[in-house]
Write a structure and sequence with these properties.
Blueprint (H helix, E strand, L loop, with lengths): L7 E5 L5 H11 L3 E6 L7 H4 L7 E4 L5 H10 L4 E4 L6 H6 L1 H20 L6 E5 L24 H20 L3 E6 L1 E3 L9 H11 L4 E2 L6 E2 L1 E3 H17 L7 E4 L5 E2 H12 L6 E2 L15 H7 L7 H20 L1
Parallel strand pairs: 1-2, 1-4, 2-3, 4-5, 5-6, 6-11, 7-10, 8-13
Antiparallel strand pairs: 9-12
Helix pairs in contact: 1-8, 3-5, 5-6, 7-9, 7-11, 9-11
Length: 326
């Protein structure tokens, strides 16, 4: 019998990249899922997968503390998985206040609502590898300090520290995910390397690389990230030693931007010259994670290789763009 059967779960950020995949997993496990949705995103996987017809949808803003308390109490929420964030780095650089409002105030509003709601037994907060800032040693481990410098990175580091504060001060059973750069079907931000390269390749256009292409990153497949969140939440329900802890999740296969773009082109089955523009600013040169703690403590590991994940991702975008074209 599934550990999630009939368990009441709140997911924030359900219309983003990771949220629909996680929601679908929870529904497969027969959980009773409630999703907090601020904006309607018709093209998102939340609607494409028909999840809007299978979950309770609460419409509202994450910073609305009264709404959060009502939702947690009315639906007797036991597990909260907090994915909602303003996740576009360029948008955060252009207009930081919106990111601070969503990512910091939204997180403390949710944590406070969880603190005063008796039914809540586990909270997972999605931080990011960007919370570490630029570290002298690689790969990054959970023992390293958070040294974020730029708006998006700082907003995720602040959310991360808020979660730890609510554990250490109030005993809130919360744990933290720090994932690499997520990719997979459902990412509608075509300025990102994977969806942008796929769309260009399918249209026969040169893919644009905003940076010089030499930056090294973790690229972490969204279905593996959904499994990681679920695994961490399961352990949090049964093992109090996990509470208050951050966990890195990664494929542990660091790649340069150019290498990743070429793998994407290979998955599409085309050979195009990259348009390398070297316009990006405020980006860390080398950043990738060790997932040793997740492997050892949670018995977690990714299910998909990068080529397998890219094949699944390309298939999603072929169908998406075909549907757009009518």
């Amino acid at each position: 019998m599934s550990a999630w059967k009939l368990k009441n779960v709140l997911v924030t950020g359900a219309t983003g990249l990771l949220g629909p995949w996680l929601t679908a997993l929870l529904l497969e496990e027969r959980a009773a899922v409630v999703c907090l949705v601020r904006d309607q995103v018709p093209g998102s996987n939340f609607h494409r997968m028909g999840l809007d017809r299978q979950v309770v949808t609460v419409h509202g803003d994450l910073v609305d503390g009264r709404l959060l308390e009502r939702t947690l109490n009315e639906y007797e929420i036991e597990v909260v998985i907090h994915l909602a964030a303003q996740a576009i780095v360029g948008a955060a650089n252009r207009s930081p206040l919106g990111s601070f409002e969503s990512n910091i105030r939204g997180t403390w509003s949710l944590l406070e609502a969880c603190r005063v709601t008796d039914s809540v037994r586990a909270v997972v907060v999605a931080s990011s590898d960007k919370a570490y800032g630029e570290q002298p040693d690689l790969p990054y481990t959970e023992a390293m300090p958070l040294d974020a410098r730029h708006p998006y990175d700082v907003s995720k580091a602040a959310a991360d520290m808020l979660a730890k504060s609510y554990f250490h001060t109030y005993g809130l059973p919360v744990a933290i995910t720090r994932c690499g750069n997520l990719y997979g079907g459902g990412d509608l931000n075509f300025n990102r390397i994977v969806p942008g390269t796929i769309r260009s390749a399918l249209l026969g256009e040169r893919p644009v690389i905003r940076s010089d292409g030499r930056s090294v990153r973790d690229y972490f497949y969204v279905e593996d990230a959904a499994n990681a969140c679920l695994r961490l939440a399961e352990r949090l329900l049964t093992d109090e030693a996990v509470a208050g802890q951050p966990f890195n999740f990664s494929s542990e296969e660091p790649l340069t931007v150019i290498e990743m773009a070429r793998l994407v082109l290979a998955a599409v089955g085309v050979d195009l010259e990259l348009d390398i523009r070297n316009e990006a600013r405020h980006e860390i040169e080398r950043q990738y994670l060790s997932a040793a703690r997740a492997r050892e403590v949670l018995s977690w590991e990714p299910r998909f290789t990068v080529p397998e994940a890219l094949q699944r991702t390309v298939a999603w975008y072929r169908e998406y763009l075909r549907d757009l074209a009518g």
